[in-house]
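Um, can you check?
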Amino acid sequence: MNLLRGFLDNAPAPPATSSPSGFLFKGPGMPSKLFYPIPSKTSPSGIEMAEDIPGISGFDLEAFLASQKRTSEDAQREARDPFGRHRWVCLQNLQTEALNGKYAEIVVPANEDGRFGVRVQGEPVPKLIKKENLKPIDDAETVQVCRVAAKGESQFIGGYIQNTRWPRAILSSMSGTVSPISVKLGFPLHVIRVQARSKLSDRAEFDNQWATYMLIDPGSGFAPDEWQSFVGPVVVWRPDGDVSSDDVSLLNDFVSNLLNGPYCEGTLDPDRDLTPAAWARHRERTLENLRLNPRMEQYEDLHI
């Protein structure tokens, strides 16, 4: 088990006296909810024009993102806006008929010409498309998910763990894996690999410790080989309700405590440690500890 911990724990522990500048740690014990500084930026390979939108020069996505000042309140407003960044839309009435009916994620707000930067599902390079060609997807057709970034996604819009809404139709069509630990705890979570928002090259850049933890085998504490390396970013969701970054943070704390304790010590009792009752105790204890420490960020958006 120590070998597993050594393999997974790539990031050095934070100093005991303070958190690194620009980072926020949440929850008692080991770090849980971790955000990159805002503003942040992404460095995709570029952005291209849809063929049926003539007369528009190239768009400097990196320069635009570097100039942005974005508070947490701004992020929340965008999450509620049907045309906010990382909301999904459906393409319509384009001359390039092959694009009509496809889902796309908004990655850049409207420019001065009223065109949004969108990334069509399955395509690596964003396109600039007019607002009238973007059909908002009703919230009733979407579900809140938690996107967990890969280690190498160090510069992009949004937090390391981020709440966003995805169409159920897309999620249901994608191949994923159900977290065995979450099944034991009574709330099956689906974990799906998704496209990175910035280029990932080295093996270490694909590391995603949180996703690996969610996929460990309840009996051994080891994740399958395919979830130990080259994991990349993931989306965590469930068919019967929302999932938030607070949910995933709390689950990460729970699994980390098990790996540092019962799994390492060989004292794990599934009938005691991996049950809905065990999860309820962890949840209640954590929330009470946070209430006693009001200066720490609180878990406020829990669904599991």
In short: The two ends are 28 Å apart (CA to CA).
